Amino acid sequence: KERNEYIPNFISKKPFYITDDLDTSGADYLEHQRLQKQEQDSKWYDRGKKKGPAATKFRKGACENCGAMTHKKKDCLARPRKQGAKWTGKDIQADEIVQDVQLGFDAKRDRWNGYDASEYNNVVEEYNALEELKKQ
Question: Pre-mRNA-splicing factor SLU7 domain location, by residue (predicted)?
């Protein structure tokens, strides 16, 4: 057991009124108050990436709005169409990559997860090219 200096000594030792017949599992009854282990490091994952090419026709069980197999119509993030892919069969979207990622509180909300700093040079070059066109 790791010591948590914020738990007083009289609490950290099992109180006299906790009998052994109630505590059959032998688990630490103050585990929720002890210092928790650090969760695993955040992994980079392919957020918003697509799996291969899109289907050519609507498939049974796919999203009625965009035609992807990885979600249903109520979970679709694409703009709602007047007539969905189910009825028109046009502009069917590719399936998204779905990964089971175990991330901590901060890692889940990390805006810069997966950002590659080396791509920034491309952004600067594109911006400079636009500036040159504006000057001309």
Answer: 103-136
Give the pLDDT confidence score for residue 125 in this predicted structure: 93
φ and ψ at residue 130, rounded to 5 degrees? -65, -40
d(CA 3, CA 17): 22
In the 8-state DSSP scheme, what is residue 131? H
Q: Residue range 1-29: average pLDDT?
A: 67
Among 1-5, 18-22, 60-64, the range with the most confident prediction by mean pLDDT is: 60-64
Which residue did the predictor score with more confidence, 39 or 102?
102
Neighbours of 63 (CB within 10 A): 25
Full-model pTM: 0.46
Question: Is the confidence at residue 118, as pLDDT, over 70?
Answer: yes
DSSP letters for the chain: ----TTS-HHHHSPPTT--TTT--S---TTGGGSPPPPPPPPPP--TT-EESSPPSS--TTS-TTT--TTS-GGG--SPPPSS-HHHH--SPPPEEP-------HHHHT-TTTT--GGGHHHHHHHHHHHHHHHH-
